[in-house]
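Side project, low priority. Logging it here so it doesn't get lost.
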Amino acid sequence: MIKELTQDSFTEAIKSSKPIIVDFWASWCGPCRMLSPTIDALSEEYEAQIDVGKVNVDEQGALAAQFGIVSIPTVIIFKDGREAKRMIGVHDADDYRDEIERLL
C-alpha cells in the first residue's frame, strides 16, 4: 500500500524498521506519470519487505525543500531513518529492485 506522505507523517514513516521508498512527484510532471506504474508494481512486489510513500511536491513544498528536491521525479530510499539512495529521473524497474535488494 502506498502512503501519501505529508510534513506531519513523513518523519514517522521513514523511522520504519523496513526500508521505505519515497517518490517525490507532481501531477503535471510527465516523467512522474511514467514512473508511477513502476512504483505501484514495486509496492506490490515487495509489500512485506518495504514501505512505499509519495510526496506531492506542489502540496508539500517545505518537505521537498528540506530534501533538496530540484528535479522530479526523485525517488529516495530511506533505511533506519536515513537516506540510503537517491535516484533522479525515470529508471528501469530493475534499477529500483537492485537498490531494494541491496538494502534488505
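Brief comment: Strands lie at 2-4, 20-25, 51-56, 74-79, 82-88.
Revisit when time allows.
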